[in-house]
């Protein structure tokens, strides 16, 4: 009679002394809450491909949750001029965007006919309505009051977005840090907390130019500027891969949330988070 692979004798050394009995202690699945995570997929059709669509977007939301954790902390570190920890946090956000860029390649395995078979199950739900992504954009300075409307039915979500709408963005805190280090910034820009996307300001470009022209003197600000560029570079690649994947699957159809679909996403490619840092590259 063969011995059970989970018997006491196999526990003694065959598995390199790994713990195998978790009846009285926390296991890997317990720590990660896998019972909740792995049962959170509820396809509304019988189509084989709908599970891919759900997991793709749920996984993206998990990564966005981490982004928010890092961005909030980075903003506070920049405010306190503790730049070194902020660099690590911003680098991590850039790598998360890289991860999300690659995730589109999985969704791109879905063909137009496969998606059409369950698209009606989505109703009017759309990635356009992601409140976490909206909060990420607000923290990065791309604010918009009208884009809060899809969340009006959820008071707790509106409260989060309203706080970010009225708070200095990560970039605003960087501008303030430049002023504290003696770089000249217009008072109107320095004290501005806008509920609109970041607008170009010549004094901010001049301040960044001074940083780039003397990086040894302003090494931390120089590094911060490059972290911002890395982050927006990765975000642009994510946006581009997003629009390409959507066009590949639905062409120029209207999105489920009522947007222009590909047309809307292409407009987003032209949005700039840190306009002075990009303009500077031409004007130096």
Topology:
Layout: H1 8-12, H2 28-32, H3 34-37, H4 50-79, H5 83-107, H6 112-116, H7 131-139, H8 155-165, H9 170-180, H10 187-190, H11 202-213, H12 219-250, H13 262-268, H14 275-283
What does this structure look like?
With 284 residues, this protein is an all-alpha fold. It contains 14 helices and no strands. The chain has a domain at 47-126 and 170-283: Methane Monooxygenase Hydroxylase, Chain G, domain 1 (Up-down Bundle), CATH 1.20.58. The relative contact order is 0.11. The model is unreliable at 7-11 (pLDDT under 50).
Helix content: 55-70%
What is the name of the CATH class of the domain at 47-126 and 170-283?
Mainly Alpha
Biggest sheet architecture: none
Cα-to-Cα separation, first versus last residue: 80 Å
Average of pLDDT: 91
Note the overall shape.
Answer: globular
Q: Which ranges are low-confidence, i.e. pLDDT below 50, for 5 or more consecutive residues?
A: 7-11
Secondary-structure element string = HHHHHHHHHHHHHH
Over all CA atoms, what is the radius of gyration? 23 Å
- CATH architectural grouping of the domain at 47-126 and 170-283: Up-down Bundle
Counting DSSP H or I runs of 4 or more residues, the number of helices is 14
Give me the CATH fold name of the domain at 47-126 and 170-283.
Methane Monooxygenase Hydroxylase, Chain G, domain 1
Strand content is under 5%
Oligomer: single chain
Tally the beta strands. Answer: 0
Structural class by sheet pairing and helices: mainly alpha
């Amino acid at each position: 009679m063969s011995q059970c692979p989970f018997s006491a004798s196999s526990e003694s050394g065959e598995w390199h002394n790994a713990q195998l009995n978790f009846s009285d202690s926390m296991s890997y699945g317990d720590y990660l809450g896998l019972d909740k995570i792995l049962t959170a997929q509820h396809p509304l059709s019988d189509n084989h491909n709908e599970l891919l669509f759900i997991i793709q977007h749920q996984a993206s939301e998990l990564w966005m949750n981490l982004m928010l954790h890092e961005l909030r902390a980075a903003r506070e570190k920049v405010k306190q001029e503790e730049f070194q920890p902020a660099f690590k946090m911003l680098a991590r956000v850039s790598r998360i965007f890289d991860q999300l860029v690659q995730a589109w390649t999985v969704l791109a395995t879905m063909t137009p006919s496969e998606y059409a078979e369950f698209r009606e199950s989505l109703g009017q739900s759309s990635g356009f309505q992601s409140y976490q992504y909206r909060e990420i954009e607000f923290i990065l300075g791309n604010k918009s009051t009208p884009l809060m409307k899809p969340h009006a039915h959820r008071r707790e979500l509106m409260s989060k977005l309203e706080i970010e709408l009225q708070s200095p963005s990560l970039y605003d805190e960087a501008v303030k840090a430049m002023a504290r280090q003696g770089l000249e910034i217009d008072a109107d820009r320095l004290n501005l907390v806008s509920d609109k996307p970041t607008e170009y300001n010549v004094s901010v470009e001049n301040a960044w130019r001074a940083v780039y022209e003397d990086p040894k003197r302003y090494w931390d600000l120089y590094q911060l500027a490059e972290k911002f560029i890395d982050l927006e570079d990765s975000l642009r690649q994510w946006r581009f891969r997003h629009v390409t994947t959507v066009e590949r699957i639905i062409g120029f159809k209207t999105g489920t949330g009522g947007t222009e679909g590909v047309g809307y996403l292409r407009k987003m490619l032209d949005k700039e988070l840190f306009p002075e840092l990009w303009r500077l590259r031409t004007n130096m």
